[in-house]
Amino acid sequence: MRTESTSADAFLSFHCLKAGGHPERIFVDKVDRADTTDIAAQDTPLHEQALEEEAFSDIFPEILPITVRMPTPLTLPALPGQAKRRGKLDTTTSPPDAEEIAPNYHATVHDIPADDRPRERLQRQGADMLTTSDLLAIILRTGTHRDNVIELSTNLLAKYGGLSGLMAADFYDLCATYGLGPAKTAQLKASLELGKRLSMVPAEKRYQITSADDAARLIRMEMMYLDHEELHIMLLDTRNQVIECIKRYKGTVNSSVLRIAEVLRPAITRNSPRIIICHNHPSGDPTPSNEDIDVTRQLAEAAKLLDIELLDHLIIGNPRYLSLKERLGW
Question: Domain 212-328 - what CATH class?
Fold first, then answer.
């Protein structure tokens, strides 16, 4: 240790000579202090560095240690689109302790399962099964930038106190409400006016059939002068009042042309519990053929399976008609 001279020793000797001191004395004091420590520890680089720093502080006590401060890295705030990307939190552009602010997201009608959407429910269950808010959402069709169409309809009903309040509301007031706009306000006002006019229409008395004569009187003048065969279907309600009279076939009415399902389909779609079938004979003779009898029996059996009652099958001639129910007695 004494025979070796480090760069620190040379540095100390130079400055001591410059100050008029004795470098040998300083070196001896350094070695004496080092003897008090463990011999093995003296060979370590850390121990030698500590001794050099201590000797340097004895000579230059007025020099304070210099602290170097590294510049703080500049952190830019995260953009709104970077806070949440596709529903996943993105922390790569902001410090760990920065608060992530997720943008507001409103679910649209397309986020709702298809079976729960108002329009699909109306097609499947009927309009009477939907709430007023759902019906209003179907009329408005789309929402605004802040609310989807279901939220918009619910807010409108709550703000104006139901349909009566929407009817009385001013057009331009509605335009400015929830960003509705003139187009949607016009749709809403037109629908409300149609409902108002419908409520003012007097109920029409439907034609009621109590016998085969009543049915023939309704249809005979239209069919007795035809030069070809036609099949008409009378749809009746539970009180035997005529809901609608539908022309289904034109031509020859036989088993090869007539499909039972097509005859009964109107009654199913209109929820008609009773029907009357009418077809004409261009020859003017209402006498039924074997085809007429077979088709009538097939219709009666198929209708019974569907809880539809076939009240009668009329054959219209000129000038007479014939009731197959009275002839066959089913």
Answer: alpha beta
